[in-house]
Design a protein that fits this description.
By secondary structure, this protein is of the alpha/beta class. The protein has eleven helices and twelve strands. It is elongated. The N and C termini lie far apart (53 Å). It folds into three domains: 6-87, Arc Repressor Mutant, subunit A; 101-166 and 275-303, 3-Layer(aba) Sandwich (D-Maltodextrin-Binding Protein, domain 2); 174-272, D-Maltodextrin-Binding Protein, domain 2 (3-Layer(aba) Sandwich), CATH 3.40.190.10. The protein has a five-stranded mixed β-sheet.
């Protein structure tokens, strides 16, 4: 095993490494940490010698981390966060005076449901606090937490590993949404009529057969999915502008029901609800600021 003498290592190199992982671009990394681009390039050369690995490879997509860099990234992010916590001296988090930035991972569904109330709370209680929202999904959310791309994710995710924490915000059920003057709807919706309609499906991966279709398949029936989109926020607008019917999370349409002339009806079959949670890395458990933002999100979720 290679012996490392910390006294001979400039730990500021870890700050450069972390910025390169997050930004994937030397110039943006330099801007983020207040260095010049040549200084970042020089630091990267020193990091390569230290690790005995190229760490980042230039490509049309920017600086692509090598497997060694990806393996080291979560630990280095954790080290830097622990240093920041020590330097804060364990001081209590004071929302009205804080200028802290929180980086959250939300799907467009979770953003629509949670962000309006969350930003309103920040306006009132912590006007100096800022949010950076990064798009996430069920398939990538936990990985984004692991590599330090976000501090917390909210939405529907697989069961997290033991080094992460999860808290239920609410259970979401489904509703059928159509434009208010849909020619085939008269205030009720049985299964035969439901199956005769053209449907809109939301799928992050572009799959026209999703959760609702799996439930229908258990009943031995199939709906006509005419349009599949990759973003939840498209669904209310497309439903309002067409004869499509969407069977999607209730809160997606509930928040817009007063702004768009939509008809909301219960599905003709029982569709099990799904869990909406907030999930974070265990390293944030005792962080006062993180505890505060989790409490706010918890309360926002209760009112969603």
């Amino acid at each position: 095993m290679k012996r490392v003498h910390l006294a001979n290592i400039d730990l500021n190199l870890l700050v450069v490494f972390d910025a390169l992982v997050s930004e994937g671009h030397a110039t943006r990394a330099a801007e983020r940490i207040g260095l010049t681009q040549p200084a970042v390039s020089h630091a990267l050369n020193r990091l390569r010698v230290l690790f005995g690995d190229p760490l980042f490879i230039r490509s049309p997509r920017g600086m692509v981390p090598t497997p060694a860099a990806l393996e080291a990234a979560p630990a280095i992010r954790s080290i830097l966060e622990q240093v920041e916590s020590v330097l804060r001296g364990g001081r209590a988090f004071d929302p009205p005076e804080s200028t802290r930035q929180f980086v959250l991972g939300l799907s467009d569904y979770a953003a629509l449901v949670l962000l309006p109330r969350l930003t309103a709370r920040l306006d009132r209680e912590a006007p100096g606090v800022s949010l950076t929202i990064r798009n996430t999904s069920r398939s990538v959310g936990l990985a984004m937490l692991d590599d330090g791309a976000v501090e917390l994710i909210a939405g529907n995710f697989p069961e997290p590993p033991t080094h992460m924490r999860e808290e239920l915000l609410y259970e979401e059920d489904f509703v059928c949404a159509a434009r208010g003057d849909h020619p085939s709807l008269d205030g009720s919706l049985d299964l035969d009529r439901y199956l005769s309609l053209r449907h809109l499906q939301v799928s992050m991966k572009g799959n026209p057969h999703g959760y609702v279709d799996a439930v229908l398949a258990e009943r031995g029936v199939k709906r006509n999915v005419a349009v599949t989109v990759g973003h939840f926020l498209m669904a209310p607008m497309l439903v309002d502008a067409s004869d499509l019917v969407a069977t999607e999370p209730r809160r997606l349409f509930g928040s817009l029901a007063g702004r768009l002339p939509l008809t909301l009806l219960p599905p003709p079959i029982e569709i099990p609800p799904f869990r909406v949670v907030q999930t974070w890395h265990a390293r944030y458990d005792t962080d006062p600021g993180h505890q505060w933002v989790r409490q706010v999100i918890r309360e926002v979720g209760q009112w969603a």
